[in-house]
Specification:
By secondary structure, the protein is α/β, with parallel strands linked by helices. It has 2 domains: 101 residues, Rossmann fold (3-Layer(aba) Sandwich), CATH 3.40.50; 115 residues, Formyl transferase, N-terminal domain (Rossmann fold, 3-Layer(aba) Sandwich). Helix content is 33%, strand content 21%. The protein has an 8-stranded mixed beta sheet. Helix 2 crosses helix 7. This is Phosphoribosylglycinamide formyltransferase. It catalyses: N(1)-(5-phospho-beta-D-ribosyl)glycinamide + (6R)-10-formyltetrahydrofolate = N(2)-formyl-N(1)-(5-phospho-beta-D-ribosyl)glycinamide + (6S)-5,6,7,8-tetrahydrofolate + H(+). Keywords: Purine biosynthesis, Transferase. Belongs to the GART family.
Length: 257
Amino acid sequence: MSSTDFNSGPFNDTINDMAPEPAAARRIVVLISGSGSNLQALIDAQRHDRLCGEIVAVISNEPDAYGLKRALEADIEAVALPHREYDSRDAYDGALIKVIDRHEPDLIVLAGFMRILTPRFVQRFLGKMLNIHPSLLPAYQGLNTHARALADGVKQHGCSVHFVTEELDGGPVVLQAELNVSSDDTVDTLKEKVHAREHLIYPIAVQWFLQGRLKYSTESATMDGHPLPPHGMRLSHTDAAEELDEEIDENPQTPSF
């Protein structure tokens, strides 16, 4: 993904038309549970000056998560906070709140954080917490999205960046990337293709928030003061494939926006 140029292509021709002056660096905390591939996409974006912010800490509920190693290699504070050491979900989230508050973040990014958050936690950081989900929400909330999409025989799949609310995968959607499902796709091939799209759009959505363009509303996310549609902004299969240097099929596509 490091070869992807977020500053070129038809998608960014649109967003750069309204790009504001760079804002002062803001503080980001990333929550992970595993490999941290989306964390790496954010680290790469920061390294190439594509984020007007700084990842100040990475926190994992799994002490052996590979993402912690990614953080250390990037000279970012890595914190292991094992959930199994706490008697309840509420107790764990209370401890997590304290660790996060210590870093005074402007934004909390969930990057494969495999925990259902308590209402207390969500309300504490409401409006400043983003997540990425491997489906075109509101379709396939929850787990096993690729298998469920294949079982239903859908023609399009993808991923969504959304604000985190108390409803699981139900917060206002910010940005989506589409993927045409082919007849020979499997769970593994869909996972790989969707991951590539996650790594493409997550840094863009994070940058929008850091710039002050993207904001939370109880009814919908807003971009430059304008409410976004229920699916947020949407990057078509063709545009995503061009950004990722994928082979583009000849199936008809829906508009990008």
